[in-house]
Amino acid sequence: MGKFHVINHPLIQHKVTILRNKETGTKDFREAVNEIARLMAYEVSRDMPLQDVEIETPLVKTTQKHLAGKKVAIIPILRAGLGMVDGILDLIPAAKVGHVGMYRDHETLEAVEYFIKLPTDIQDRQLFVVDPMLATGASAIAAIEALKKRGASSIKFVCIVAAPEGVKALEEAHPDVDIYTAALDEKLDENGYILPGLGDAGDRLFGTL
Ligand code: URA
C-alpha cells in the first residue's frame, strides 16, 4: 500500500488558510498555491536517491553525494494542477512537465481523458501528479490510469486539500501510489465540493468565478 502523508508544516498551514478564506483574490490565491507547492516539493522529494561522486574541494579530494536515479516529471491535471507546477520547478528545475486533461461526463459521471501530452520517457521517470483538490478521486484515478497505460510505474500524487472519500478511493484504485496533501478535510458535500475546502480551485486560480 502506498503511504499517505499530510505535510502540515506551520508555513504550509498558514498559506492553506489564505487559500480557504473567501476574501483572498486571484493574485494572492495563485501566489499561495505556488508557495505551498514549492514547500511541499521539499518533502515529496525527500526520498530521492543519492549516489557518491568524487570531487575536489580547494583543499582535498573527497567523496560526496549527488542526486542519482530517476529523473522527475511533473504532471498537472488540467486545469487547476497548472497552479502547482512552477512552485515545484523552483526546487527541481530540470523536471519535465507533462499534461493530462480530464473532464467529468455529466451522464455517466465518469472522468474522461480529453488531452494528454507526456515526456517520451515517462517509464524511466519519477512522476509527481499534481492537482490541488482530491475530492471524489475520480480524475486522479483516471489520470494515473492513463499514465500507467503509457508505461509509468513510479508515481506520487500531490494535492493541497484532500477529502477522506478521495483518499480512500485513490488508495484502493492505485495502492502503489504515495499520496501527499497539505490538509485532510472533513468530507464532500452533495455536489462533490470538499468541506470546509476552498471552493473551486481552478476558478479561484484563474479568476473565472
Ligand atoms: N474541485 C475543486 O476545485 N474544489 C472542490 O471542493 C472539489 C473539487
Describe the protein's topology:
Layout: E1 4-6, H1 10-20, H2 26-44, E2 50-56, E3 61-67, E4 71-78, H3 85-91, E5 96-97, E6 99-104, E7 111-117, E8 125-130, E9 133-134, H4 138-149, E10 155-158, E11 161-162, H5 164-173, E12 178-181, E13 183-184, E14 187-188, E15 194-195, H6 201-206
Helix pairs in contact: 1-2, 2-3
Q: How many beta-strand elements?
A: 15
**Strand fraction:** 25-35%
SSE string, helix = H, strand = E?
EHHEEEHEEEEEHEEHEEEEH
N-end to C-end Cα span = 38 Å
Mean pLDDT reading: 96
Number of helices: 6
Would you write up a description of this structure?
- The protein has 209 residues and is α/β, with parallel strands linked by helices.
- Helix content is 31%, strand content 31%.
- It is built from 6 helices and 15 strands.
- The protein has helices at residues 10-20, 26-44, 85-91, 138-149, 164-173, 201-206, and strands spanning 4-6, 50-56, 61-67, 71-78, 96-97, 99-104, 111-117, 125-130, 133-134, 155-158, 161-162, 178-181, 183-184, 187-188, 194-195.
- Strands 1, 4, 5, 6, 7, 8, 10 and 12 form an 8-stranded mixed β-sheet that branches. Strands 9-11-13 form a 3-stranded parallel β-sheet. A two-stranded antiparallel sheet has the order 2-3.
- A hairpin with a 4-residue loop joins β2 and β3 (61-67).
- The structure holds uracil (URA).
- Uracil (URA) binds at residues 80, 133, 135, 192-194, 197, 200-202.
- Uracil binds next to α6.
